[in-house]
Amino acid sequence: MVSLVLLVFLKTVVLVPITLLPIMNPLGNAPIFLRMTQGADEATTRHLARRVAVNCCLLILGAIFVGSYVLAFFGLSLPIVRLAGGLLVAATGWQLLHDDSGSEKGDGAIRSSLSEADGSNWSEAELRQRSFYPISFPLTVGPGTIAASIALGAHQPGRVLDWVISGTAYVSGALVTAMGVYLTYRYARRLLRFMGEMGTTVVMRLSAFILLCIGFEIMWTGLSALIEEVK
User: Fold this and answer.
1) Nearest-10 crossing angle of helices 42-74, 78-97
2) Which helix (H) or strand (E) is 68 found in, with range?
3) pTM over 0.85
């Protein structure tokens, strides 16, 4: 019995980063993170990476534990969220796949933030603000990640003991995911220097294609659920 519970616990812990990290794509976002911190010293970059990781962890946990209740309040079903979130993820992947501007990706607000970025002149308040928008949201944790997180936490067990076990597993998985984000952004400069310009381009294109496939997978899951409801 104990071994079975432990197996389910570990499976959930592993499931969270495996599901979310390909959508979040911190490695593909690393060049953008570096542009956002250009001119900043090592301590500032480390501090910003830690803040982003904490923000991402809180956003993921909020979506896992509260997301389904928010959907119920607004009368939205999980399949609709999966369909809409998958569409946004697929659209983002398609845009990145055909984007010739290199590391400048995202909407106008992100592009504007990139053009004005100079980490050497950031105050503590500006550092806190930029760590959330646009780096944490929507660059790292976007609609697709939120939709996937809601889907992960949609079926919480009814028994208190099972809920505590699954909740602890989700928290642990979110911490592992946030650690992956932190390490990638913290050592982004070394990673990109190791890969080189060509390697960075290849990684970003592959990440965009994977993101496109993940978007269609999320859409198909939502569409299949809607079809089942019609039947």
Assistant:
1) 140
2) helix 42-74
3) no
